[in-house]
Amino acid sequence: MIFSELYSAYYNTVARILTAAIEQPLEKKELRTIIEETAFGESILNIEPALCGERWQLLHKDGTTSLRHTPTMPLTTLQKRWLKAISLDARIRLFTDDFPALDDVEPLFTADDFCVFDRYTDGDAFEDAAYINNFRTILDALRNRYPLSITMITPNGNEKHFHVMPKSLEYSEKDDKFRLITSGCRFSTIINLGRIVSCERFEGSFSVQPSENARPHTLEVELTDERNALERVLLHFAHFEKEVERLDEKHYMLRMQYDKNDETELVIRILSFGPLVRVTSPQSFVELIRQRLIRQMQCGERGDREDSIPQLSAQNTAADNKSEESKP
Q1: Is residue 255 within 8 Å of 245, Cβ to Cβ?
Q2: Residue 269: helix, strand or coil by DSSP?
Q3: What angle do CA 231, 7, 87 make, to 5 degrees?
């Protein structure tokens, strides 16, 4: 790995121990304190004997070191090339303008090295000055926990002004958009950053208003593990809270928590797996799938999924008929 928290923790711990030993002989109590503060609970079993027993020839038995200068960990060429590649991504400028100068380094990869498919082309304008300013204001509000006054353009083209308490930011790889998850507003709990016209700190009194859409909903999907479907589904919905139950050798039950505001997108994404998935509950979600399939078939917008749509529709319909038969 280019950067590793596990290895970095050990290197930083030893570097701090040696820095302390340069100033004065280090006692075992001080050494253990440094290890407990900067490494892991079990690290004391490895680092202390390796240093005190001089297996790592950095620290003498009397707590001194032969080093004269404070240890440093300069970036390797590979790390610099990775950072250069990341710096070319427009999204990195949303977080900071202070990026190390790497003019003499070739990027480890570029955008041309990737073939991106199944992504919408109307992603957010990450290089727009107003978008960057709004993003950084939201980021600061999340870090310092204060409400925001937001003006945005609704899907109907109207301008809407409201106050919210930001909870988190999420990025949709499929849509290439950032969304703000909020609380305290009945109008919306999920806001597309691309629709925000202005965003600033709200200085007035603020109270959180309950929202029905903020309550998590549970989606149950029966999955047939063919053509590596299980792995693809888990990767596709990696950012959702979920659990998987194995039913038999080929079938699994996926239970996933979702926000009601995400229903339309979730329906589209579920349908992309064709007959390999079957929604079992809630019934309202099953109805959304049925209505969308009916509209697609009526409009002739079946595309490459011409065969999968009738099968999926039949599966969901059969499940509903079975449930109807079981009723008294």
Answers
A1: yes
A2: helix
A3: 70
Q: Kindly give the parts of the chain with pLDDT less than 70.
A: 1-2, 5-7, 185-188, 207-215, 261, 300-328
Q: In degrees, to the nearest 5, what angle opens at C-alpha 203 toward C-alphas 199 and 205?
A: 120
Q: What is the pTM of this model?
A: 0.59
- Check if the beta carbon of residue 258 is closer than 8 Å to that of residue 266: yes
Q: Which of 162, 139, 134 is nearest to 149 (CA)?
A: 162
Q: Torsions phi, psi of 150, nearest 5?
A: -120, 135
- Per the CB < 8 A criterion, the answer to whether 252 and 244 are in contact is yes
Question: Looking at residue 321, what is its pLDDT?
Answer: 41
One-letter amino acid at 268 equals I
pLDDT at 98: 82
Rounded distance between C-alpha atoms, residue 130 and residue 144, angstroms? 21
Using alpha carbons, select from 215, 214, 212, 235 the residue that is nearest to residue 223: 235
